[in-house]
Amino acid sequence: MVVDVAENPSVNVKCHTQDHQTVHWKKKTRKQRSNNGILNLTVQEHADAGNFTCHSDTGLILDYKVILLHEENLPQRKRILSKSGELLKCSVKNYSGNFSCFWNSTDDSNIEFFFKARRGDNDSISCDEPVKNKGQYSVECRDTQSCIYEEEEQSITVHLHVIQQHKYENYTLAFMLREITKPDPPQELNINNTKDRKHVSIHWKYPKTWCNRHSFFPLIFNVQIKKDEKTIEHQTDHTTFKLEDKHIESFCVQAKDKFFNSSWSEWSCYKLKNKSKKNEKKKGEKHKGIKEKKKKKKKTDKKL
């Protein structure tokens, strides 16, 4: 049972027993006064919360309640999780119905996390247990009734419940899958000369994790080309781009859903092998040749 301290610190806890059975409540070893099995509590600080057990006259445990303290609306409350920026985030790689959510990590081993998700009134979404990895917690969820070819009508709502001893917090996030889409980076980047040898063609492929029907789920690509110590940017919905070969050093590509204002993928980059080294070698050979010519000229001048 969660008690919101700011809204209503008073709570009545009833022991579920047979009628007219004499009972008493305990918190640890200390007895609590009750009226006909109903425990009246005022929860204002951590010491007021905790585990309460209902006992018969013989000491048998008949019922128990866990009272948690919720300080959401108190101005000077200390958070369980550090809220730097957006604490709870979710993302999806495609429209299959599988999505991931993330939140800040903590070193406190006494903290428990419970994660739930639903679309409208439908309980079709199942989520794994939260896993800690690389400074954050993550959870994987699956919407088993999601259809990638239908327009979303109801948003998904996720709830993160956080318990630290007898303190409670919750975080909620609502979204459509199209709003949190972030594709994997484009793959198989490459560069080739065109037949006329006057241009080069850079090309890439859709990420394997993206939806197979590219015509139905198109991506748009942001391309950065580095050449002659300058960066050129270009946006296209094709997977190839032709340009003049003027000392191209590298190029990078990122992708996002063409029709929705969702997130760009991370960059995927291709660097030409030994391009700069070859140029340096040519410059070095040229410089070496000039030096040798000067030496020969000096020897000839001395002979004369």
Write the layout of secondary structure elements.
Layout: E1 2-4, E2 10-14, E3 23-27, E4 30-32, E5 38-42, E6 50-56, E7 61-70, E8 89-91, E9 98-104, E10 111-119, E11 125-127, E12 131-133, E13 136-143, E14 156-164, E15 167-175, E16 187-193, E17 199-205, E18 219-227, E19 230-236, E20 240-244, E21 248-257, E22 268-271, H1 275-303
Structural description of this entry:
The chain is mainly beta. It folds into three domains: about 70 residues, Immunoglobulin-like (Sandwich), CATH 2.60.40.10; about 90 residues, Immunoglobulin-like; about 90 residues, Immunoglobulins (Immunoglobulin-like, Sandwich), CATH 2.60.40. The chain has one helix and 22 strands. Strands 1, 3, 4, 6, 7, 10, 14 and 15 form an eight-stranded mixed beta sheet that branches. Strands 8, 9, 11, 12 and 13 form a five-stranded antiparallel beta sheet that branches. A hairpin with a 2-residue loop joins strand 12 and strand 13. The mean pLDDT is about 80.
Q: What composes the largest sheet?
A: 8 strands, mixed
The share of residues in extended strands comes to over 45%
Number of domains: 3
> Taking Cα atoms only, what radius of gyration do you get, to the nearest Å?
33 Å
Structural class: mainly beta
Number of helices: 1
Whole-number average pLDDT? 82
Q: What is the CATH superfamily of the largest domain?
A: Immunoglobulins
Question: Which architecture of the largest domain does the CATH hierarchy give at level 2?
Answer: Sandwich
CATH class of the largest domain: Mainly Beta
User: N- to C-terminal separation?
Assistant: 107 Å
CATH fold-level label of the largest domain: Immunoglobulin-like
